[in-house]
């Protein structure tokens, strides 16, 4: 009797495997969710929505962006790690994927163990901006004003490990003072408060700041890249302001839960590669001061290798700064 049951079990298991590989071949047969671990309307959301629209054309299925903000992106990424490994939930995250393992004492996911890697997406520069009526006229005045008034100035960010937080940390250490930080679920809502004058300044990606800078709704003082940006030729770099070696560029990657079947992964990688070449994506990214990565970086191998290198790069920097979160 036990033998009979075992055979039945084995047959059922075999049928299950066959069914799931048939499902993987047919994938996708229903809408896909792309988790963005920050609030709607911010820079990660903007990148994700462009890529999702182009992937959706390729996959012939809706790709819905779901914003799960909080704790520098770690809440949304944890949700993405625990989602069923069937290709129907994927996650977009940025450089914060590489800093979270060192910054957070307790992290419920492991970036190197809990994911399959779809590919890199874009490298986005940042800008140092302030509310429109912030007194300093240029970068030189901005740097001395922040140093003199740091005890009363408020700096908006998207939580520990967000790019806006990392840029703020580097900036504090470069100018040798700290200021009051105000965390949001994303820099989309932070930007609303900056526009309303409730916070003083912020370092955020061009994908969120370009239109506000161009419309004169915020004051821009500098870019975080070593070279000036084509979209803002008049904005100096922080290095020109005397902050030696200051550089932050925010890389983004696309992830699926560990164990997602290979045929599904192959389709997701092809869909990303399609999106990276899509003329609408290229134009939109270009207008926002960035570009899709070249195709050879939009691969699982490139993302895995970059993530690992970045975890190793940031670990000693964060340990030296001694900044941790629970
Ligand atoms: N990615 C942004 C940051 O790291 C937050 C956001 O997308 O809203 O600051």
User: Which CATH class of the largest domain?
Assistant: Alpha Beta
Major beta sheet summary:
9 strands, mixed
Could you say what the CATH architecture of the largest domain is? 3-Layer(aba) Sandwich
In terms of DSSP E residues, the strand content is: 15-25%
Please report the total strand number as a whole number. Answer: 9
Topology record:
Layout: H1 2-26, E1 32-36, H2 43-59, E2 63-67, H3 74-82, E3 89-94, H4 96-103, E4 115-131, H5 139-149, E5 154-157, H6 163-175, E6 180-183, H7 187-195, E7 201-205, H8 206-214, E8 218-223, E9 249-257, H9 262-277, H10 279-287, H11 300-321
Parallel strand pairs: 1-2, 1-3, 5-6, 5-7
Antiparallel strand pairs: 3-9, 4-7, 4-8, 4-9
Helix pairs in contact: 2-8, 2-9, 2-10, 4-11
The chain binds aspartic acid.
Give a verbal description of the structure.
The chain is α/β, with parallel strands linked by helices. It has two domains: 169 residues, Bordetella uptake gene, domain 1 (D-Maltodextrin-Binding Protein, domain 2, 3-Layer(aba) Sandwich), CATH 3.40.190; 92 residues, D-Maltodextrin-Binding Protein, domain 2, CATH 3.40.190.10. Helix content is 45%, strand content 19%. It contains eleven helices and nine strands. Strands 1, 2, 3, 4, 5, 6, 7, 8 and 9 form a nine-stranded mixed beta sheet that branches. Helix 6 links the parallel strand 5 and strand 6. Helix 2 packs across helix 8 and helix 2 packs antiparallel against helix 10. The N terminus is likely disordered. It binds aspartic acid. The site of aspartic acid has 14 residues, from helix 2, helix 6 and helix 7.
